[in-house]
Amino acid sequence: MCKSWRTSRFFVDAAHFVHTTFLGYLWCFTRLFIQSPSGRKRFNVLGALNAVTLELITVTNESYINAESVCQLLRKLSELALGMPIPLVWDNARYQKCAVVFKLADELGITLMYLPSYSPHLNLIERLWRFVRKECLYSKHYADFSSFKTAISTLIDRAHITKKKQLETLMTWKFQSFTKVPFLAE
């Protein structure tokens, strides 16, 4: 077997979880009042999903994801010392495509691969973010921001162990294809 093809594969993207109530159902015969926080606080997670082991390497904050956050993630990935090339697949966010990120990735031996614009269906980590929202946010209320962050962090940290069966069916390498689709009606 040729060793040159053996690499890890990480899909990278950020998720911004807003502390508010997300309704799971809308229709109701009687009027219900649902307690909701202000929605002004958000928990940002920049994650790199290992497509083989389903482990997630993260950088989190409560302000903004920027080039500095990306550099923190690159350093964390480099510290894994996998002994093989580290290619990252991610979208075209502006903070990912700056000289600081390019320089650090080159120094650390990390390959950056960008998906075409507007193609979240090709980024495997988007499925994980949808899963986290379904498990932690929809039809749930968190009284304070601390419990909100804890619920998300716990799921993210332990999902590859506690939710392994669900993730294995969700995180397949089958991507939506748009072959033989007419773009303009004739």
From TrEMBL:
InterPro entries: RNaseH-like_sf (IPR012337), RNaseH_sf (IPR036397), Tc1-like_DDE_dom (IPR038717), Transpos_IS630-like (IPR047655). It holds the Pfam family DDE_3. This is Tc1-like transposase DDE domain-containing protein. Residues 11-148 form the Tc1-like transposase DDE domain. GO terms for molecular function: nucleic acid binding. Keywords: Membrane, Transmembrane, Transmembrane helix. Gene3D superfamilies: Ribonuclease H-like superfamily/Ribonuclease H. It comes from Phormidesmis priestleyi ULC007. The chain crosses the membrane at residues 14-34.
